[in-house]
Design brief:
Strand order of the largest sheet: 10-11-9-12-6-13-14-15
Bound molecules: adenosine-5'-diphosphate, magnesium ion
Protein name: Transcriptional regulator
GO molecular function: ATP binding; ATP hydrolysis activity
Number of domains: 2
CATH architecture of the largest domain: 3-Layer(aba) Sandwich
CATH topology of the largest domain: Rossmann fold
Organism: Brevibacillus formosus
Distance between the termini: 35 Å
Pfam family, one: AAA_31
CATH class of the largest domain: Alpha Beta
Helix content: 25-40%
Shape: globular
Radius of gyration: 24 Å
Largest sheet: 8 strands, mixed
Structural class: alpha/beta
Number of strands: 15
Length: 467
């Protein structure tokens, strides 16, 4: 039985072309074309498609449109076709449960995806032989699977399953606001906590690829580092490609990317690339030592590293970022369960955050993931937190976290001793503890840092499946 495809796109010519290309398909029957939103609604109802290809419709947000369609037709599968300049939104679309394919659309790609969707009552068929690799690759590269006919992913299941692992990205669109300081303190805080009686396994990752200072702020060596892992990934990719009977030096960059996405991951190898903080056992994946090495880090490396971290048995993955919108930062934002958006209570920093929030809202980034943190609050500020909240148009239930300006911070940066490891009342330390507890609820009793290796937590099946 063929899968029924509805094509929604206002580009009449490309719709016609695709329909013509699929006319003899054994796997797909184009059951309708819609050039506008009204028409799409009507045809979703009347033509009963199995899957919907969403190209662009002028004046509409594809993410919003897709959410509305999915609400009304929860059993359908949706594919977003993106042009190369839209592909940066791919992780975001994936999070919404859409499949993503790049334009120009190859009919074979749609056929391959269609074969993965099994309508109720339909017996599994053998996929078209020539597309088997594509299917395998799609499974690999799109881990948040869109809802299938038999097992729709429900909103309530996923957060419950993933609760035990958190990827937290500390970001702020301005330099010098305290991202690295807060990342360091949060990482140390978590590494001293327990969850259900077991010490948390924590890794801090320095995604300031060219000018990272995370290791320095803990007096840690810079080798091994992210680039050590990148080199190993390329070696693994070479042998993987050779194992597939291809010459890695003569394949196109597209093929290279495809192989990269299909490369088997080795989360058990991560420890080879980290340095351990002696006092707490915190693992740190530091940025490269030489700025030239950072230029060799590509988006597929970062993708593989983030995917591997997600599959590892770390409970908390904490990423410190640069104040930019490079690929490393964008990927760190889209992979995160929580984003700590750091700013200072000064006009330009507030304005930068406001602009970024606007951008993320336009892209329908799930705002509940973002925690705003105002760092270096003085006793008397020009703007109150309530004024800042109103300016950001935050939901009334949303708290703005604040960290006071504290003389102890500068000292602790200079000595490489986190405030979190110091005794006595330090206001900045208490504020970070509050933030940490909100990000990842832990047992109340705190583990004292004693420099001993923490017991390894057994990785449960669910963590591997959903982590
Ligand atoms: N709460 C604070 N109180 C006092 N000084 C702070 C505080 N947070 C950060 N700083 C100072 O700001 C400097 C820059 O912080 P850093 O974390 O490197 O910023 P970013 O990573 O955003 O560029 C630090 O070296 C520290 O001296
Ligand atoms: Mg920094």
């Amino acid at each position: 039985m063929k899968r029924r495809l509805l094509i929604v796109d206002d580009d009449r010519d490309s719709v016609r072309l695709l329909t013509a290309q699929l006319i003899n398909s054994r796997w797909i029957e184009v059951c309708g074309e819609a050039l506008g939103v009204e028409e799409a609604w009507a045809k979703l109802q009347e033509n009963q498609p199995h899957l919907v290809l969403l190209g662009g419709i002028k004046g509409t947000e594809r993410g919003v449109l897709c959410q509305q369609f999915r609400l009304a037709f929860p059993h359908l599968s949706f594919i977003a076709a993106c042009s190369s300049n839209e592909l940066m939104w791919e992780p975001f679309f994936r999070n919404l449960g859409l499949w993503v394919i790049a334009k120009p659309i190859e009919p074979g790609q749609i056929e391959a995806l269609a074969m993965m969707i099994q309508p109720p009552g339909m017996v599994a068929e053998a996929a078209p032989q020539q597309h088997q690799y594509v299917i395998q690759e799609q499974t690999k590269s799109y881990p948040s699977q869109p809802p299938s006919f038999s097992e729709p992913i429900t909103g309530s299941l996923v957060p419950e399953m993933t609760r035990s692992k958190q990827l937290i990205t500390v970001y702020g669109p301005k330099g010098g606001v305290g991202k690295t300081f807060i990342s360091r303190e949060l990482a140390i805080f978590f590494s001293m906590q327990k969850n259900e009686g077991v010490s948390l396994r924590v890794i801090a990752v320095d995604f300031n690829l060219d000018l990272g200072t995370f290791a320095t702020t803990l007096n840690l060596p810079r080798t091994p580092n992210l680039f050590t892992w990148v080199k190993d990934l390329d070696t693994q990719l070479h042998s993987y490609i050779q194992g597939q009977g291809k010459d890695p030096y003569s394949i196109s960059s597209e093929e290279w990317q495809e192989y990269a996405q299909a490369l088997p991951l080795s989360p058990q190898q991560i420890e080879k690339y980290v340095v351990a903080h002696p006092d707490t056992g915190l693992h740190v994946l530091t940025s490269p030592r030489d700025i030239r090495q950072s230029f060799e880090i590509r988006d597929y490396h970062l993708y593989l590293i983030l995917e591997t971290l997600k599959q590892s048995n770390y409970d908390v993955i904490l990423i410190d970022t640069a104040p930019d919108t490079t690929d490393a930062t964008i990927q760190a934002l889209f992979f995160a369960e929580h984003v700590v958006m750091v700013g200072n209570p000064v006009v330009d920093s507030i304005e930068n955050i406001q602009r970024l929030l606007k951008l993320l809202r336009e892209a329908e980034y799930p705002e509940e993931r973002i925690q705003i943190c105002m760092n270096r609050l003085q006793r008397k500020e020009m703007f109150s937190l309530d004024e800042i909240r109103a300016y950001f148009q935050l939901h009334p239930s949303k708290k703005i976290f604040s960290i006071p300006d504290d003389v102890e911070v500068k000292k602790s940066i200079n000595t490489g001793t986190p405030v979190m490891l110091q005794s006595g009342r330090i206001p900045a330390k208490e504020a970070i503890e509050t933030l940490g507890k909100a990000l990842f609820p832990v047992d109340e009793e705190q583990v004292k840092a004693d420099g001993r290796e923490k017991p390894k937590e057994k990785t449960s099946l669910f963590k591997w499946l959903w982590g």
